[in-house]
User: Fold these one by one.
Assistant:
Number 1:
Amino acid sequence: MVIPLNQIDIGQNARVVWIASSPDMAARLTDLGFTPDEEIRCVLKGRSGGMKAYLVRNAVIALREQNCRQIFVEAG
Amino acid sequence: MEQKKITVALAGNPNVGKSTIFNGLTGLKQHTGNWPGVTVAPAAGQYQYDGEEYLLVDLPGTYSLRTHSREEESARQFLCGGSADVVVVVCDATCLERGLHFLKQILELDAVRDNGTPLVLCVNLCDEAGKKGVVVDFGLLQDVLQFPVVSCCARDEESLRSLRRTIRDAASVRGCYDCLDFSPKQLARETVRYTRTDYRAREEKIDRIVTGPFSGTLLMILLLMGIFWLTMSGANIPSEFLWDLFFSAEPKLADALIWLGVPSGIMEALVYGAYRVLAWVVSVMLPPMAIFFPLFTLLEDLGYLPRIAFNMDPAFMRCRACGKQCLTMAMGLGCNAAGVIGCRIIDSPRERMIAILTNSLMPCNGRFPTLISLITLFFLAGAGSGAIGSLTAALLLTGVILCGVAATLGCSWLLSHTLLKGTPSSFTLELPPYRRPQIGRVIVRSVFDRTLFVLGRAAAVAAPAGLLIWILANVSAGGQSLLMHLTGWLDPLGRLMGLDGVILAAFLLGFPANEIVLPIILMAYLQAGRLVEAGSSAALLSLLTANGWTAKTALCMVLFCLFHWPCSTTCLTIHKETGSWRWTAVAALLPTLLGFLTCTAANLVLSVF
């Protein structure tokens, strides 16, 4: 089932399906490894509404909640 | 004929240690730290190897060459300009795949392809990878890529030697990348083996504490307090020692000048004006900075700063600003001018402007001595001088800093709802792995690079400022010195703000460097026409109270010290970064207005009671 990235819990893996961000942000996310078929994992959730961090290509990248909602993944 | 230099570019992702390699090869001291975006402008340095001259260019770290941030643009332009004879692509052994993606983008540049620019892949941080059980198959990597691959630990002399040798060998060979095609993902999968699956577990556990809703905030405040406490309690003794040393040298200096035949008027201006202010600034500033900077650098190298940004982002988001502003504020604690330059890490122009305009609301190191003196003199009378006293002082100073943070957030909110309207933009924040700082190197680097640099700047300003103050205090018109005219004229405004004319005049004269504000105040009160030795803090306190100071005056001065115009260096830096005098004026007026309002409000409210 395809869900937005912010619904992935800590420690859960996911596979990126598509990115619905604005072109600039989508390009930046692509550079970091948020590309279709890439395996990522949620490693950190701050306070509610705060940033969330994901392990992607072996680096930890933090994103704002609103940006997480624009990334759609398949929970693994 | 001058030999042609071989230009070598260092390119790669942020925070892979390019600047550490740069420093290692050139012996220069480019600022490094464990967070992405420390290098914001290309730096160049030279080194010699085997009879050849090399010009090394340290490009800002970028995630790609496609998207359009300022750093990416400058990195791309340099690589496309064809001025690089060799490009060294630096990547992190623990994040090889991302480095290979970047390498592939460089290979796709027409300039690199057509010129056959020689490439070297430098896999850095191999020591760290080893500890984490990450094994890289360098033989296979080189077989696929068909150009030199070096494994490197930038802190290790042996790997720097092999890098120099590889660069020399590569410089003479034209690269041919027409038949080179690889998938970064697959190549990384084939060459990297993870022998320990649990290596991230410990880091994640630490991160959950460091970024926890409650524990994260507590840790942040405790760390801030701890640093201030160490700085304040540690700086006392060396400060007194330096003080005695400088003032015992003073009569000797005066005698020497007279013996050299310098007229007594000029001698007095030089010794009691320039030398005294200089001695004051050095003895008051050097010890706290020599403690504060290494501690701060330690946190920076450890990788803690991005975690603060992570914790604080919700607050900045509500103010429609960027969470990375936190990093620039932390740099502002050291020096506001450095903080303003650091704002380049913020991609959105609107949010970058907000960060630049509000940076001076964080008190820089030049203002700490004033804040510390006021707190210890006026608010710690009953607390004693022992551990409790210094802890309370650290607590109060932390409170002052938190006031600065609150004001930064408030002003950011105000700006993004008035002058700089807009919605919060998207951004990504990399949380680098924690790295064990090399304590010896941290101390050497922060003392020599930062402390002496900031001190040198302060001293360069303090000596001429001291001379100017001496002239103002000693040249009289209409029976009063010029300094008295100035303070008398400013007095009504000062009184309204809970200060007096002298304090305001001191802040105005302290425009070149905030460190000299307190010395100017003392000089004006004593009307001695020269800075006086404030022998003990009790004498200092009685002098101030004799001139009408109360706890209210001290509080208002703390507020005004926190919120007033940025120093001259910062103003010039703001102009350089924004390219506009109008924004520079906003950056100066905003904190001044805030200071005026808070001081007046505090004065009025406290006068009622």
Number 2:
Amino acid sequence: MNPTRQRRLTIIIAVLAAVIIASALTVYALQQNMSYLFTPSQVQAGDATSYKTFRLGGMVKQGSIERSNDSLKVTFTVVDAAGAMPVEYTGILPDLFRENQSVIATGHMAGARFVATEVLAKHDETYMPKELKDAMAKAHAGKHIDESANQDKQQL
Amino acid sequence: MANWIPLWLHKLSSPPVFYRFAGTLRPWAIALALVLGIVAMYGGLVLAPPDYQQGNDYRIIFIHVPSAWMSLFIYAVMGIAAFIALVWRIKLAEVVAMASAPIGAAFTFITLVTGSLWGARMWGTWWTWDARLTSELVLLFLYLGVIALYHSFEDRRQGARTAGFLALIGVVNVPIVHFSVNWWNTLHQGSTIRLLGPSTIASSMLWPLLTMMAATKFYYFASLFGRVRADLLALESGKDWVRQIAENEVRR
């Protein structure tokens, strides 16, 4: 390799190394304090106290959904592995919203209750036909739902 | 010159040789892209069963996921070509890098639009500033920046080298897009297809997805070869081999 190319190669590799180190440090720093969401146990541990509004993420607890008869108000409990948080929301919920579904709610705390202004359903990365799902549900008698619930918890 | 590079690869980097090489392969790439694309569309929209949660709405993944893969793949190709162009000043590498940018930008745009359409139905929102969506948007801006920088220079080669530098720096965003769903809590789900470990998708849905991935690859090569051929002719317009082609065209 001739000296000119050698020099260009050195400069470019040095610049690239600097950029990679800089962005690796940025990513590392953002991992510490860029939180898209907090889980109920994190909120109860006081991690979200510095935010007026924040996102709460977790699973909708089985049997906790209560709809109001005369308005769009709905209350449910969001749980993670160690905590639970009652949530209140008035509005239209996404199609995927139901029990044992991962949701992300944006809102603020009002006492011990979380008042949401927006509720999003987090979709998991599993795709399968309905027939297969039914067959699996029969074989495991509901075991699969627990498994996917655990997977979601690990992600959150 | 370093002797570990095979001679044929060396010859291929010469504009007239690559012009002929790309001209021969391009019809095949177009044909394969069309055939595989139609097969994948039929498999994805007709043969594949509805999803257990999303019903038919999930079928947008047959466009969204291959486009997202291509947006990263093309950026990687552009980055490598830009690196070769900057160090060795090979004309062909400059042309390949700059010809890749608009194709990659198009795939990134398709990824963002289809993802948004799907998100509106499934998540309940068109857009959210989570790490995956934001880094993919940054990728689009990088592509647009490379295109803009390239065209802001009077001298094509000068523009290609400057834009190539931006393309090279932007390569750090590629792993960030890919790993964003693992590094941060995001609304966007994790990877379904894993190279290591089992994929979480039924095989009746997987094969159209992989076929579409192959189709988009072939489309990229077809489009790239067409663009590179045109750019090489423009860049080498004074050279003998271009004059030869022009004379042959006139005679016909």
